[in-house]
Amino acid sequence: MRIKSFLILLLSLLIIGCCGQSMTIKDSSITIDEANCWLNLMPGGNPSFHYSGTFSINKNLADDYKLKQLYVFYKDNLIHSSQPLLQFYDEIVTDSSSLIRFNFYSEQGIKVTETMMQAENLDLLLVFEIQGKTIEKAVKEIPLTRAY
């Protein structure tokens, strides 16, 4: 009887796990292709924090999406949030669909905090809205480079 209960529990967990994966696949309309973070510590100006990257979106959704917000985390603590600036990059035609790529980047003059100076890696969370649905895309362990 215990073995039967254990097998039912194991099967239930397997089904729940598979359902969770399908939810992730369902939101694959956006792909983060690249993400970078750096500190500008060049002499002659105020230190500043910057981020940039590229994401791809299905061409059919390109007219009905918005990159609402970008959050920057260090060790699970929020250290910055802003609305990224966007620029069209190019179009990619694949076997199954056509994708459009956009560059996203930070505004100029984001002040460097003490936490940013200590950080080696950062995590980004990009929040999109597509057809009234909120989609979050996380990029983990981005090296924080420094330009001197």
The total of helices stands at: 2
Into which percent range does the helicity of residues fall?
10-25%
Based on helices, strands and strand pairing, what is the structural class? alpha+beta
Q: Largest sheet, if any?
A: 9 strands, mixed
Report mean pLDDT, rounded to a whole number. Answer: 85
Radius of gyration, whole Å: 20 Å
Bulk shape? elongated
The H-and-E topology, N to C, reads as HEEEEEEEHEE
Topology, number of strands: 9
Q: pLDDT below 50 for ≥5 consecutive residues: which ranges?
A: 4-26
Strand content: over 45%
Distance between the termini: 67 Å
Describe what this molecule looks like in 3D.
The chain has helices at 2-26, 114-118; strands at 30-40, 48-58, 65-74, 77-82, 85-93, 98-105, 110-111, 121-130, 133-147. It is of the alpha+beta class and 148 residues long. Strands 1, 2, 3, 4, 5, 6, 7, 8 and 9 form a nine-stranded mixed β-sheet that branches. Strand 5 and strand 6 (98-105) form a beta hairpin. The radius of gyration is 20 Å and the shape is elongated.
Spell out the key features of this protein.
148 residues; alpha+beta; nine-stranded mixed β-sheet; 2 helices; 9 strands; elongated
Concise overview:
The chain is built from two helices and nine strands, in the order αβββββββαββ. The protein is elongated.
SSE inventory with pairings:
Elements: H1 2-26, E1 30-40, E2 48-58, E3 65-74, E4 77-82, E5 85-93, E6 98-105, E7 110-111, H2 114-118, E8 121-130, E9 133-147
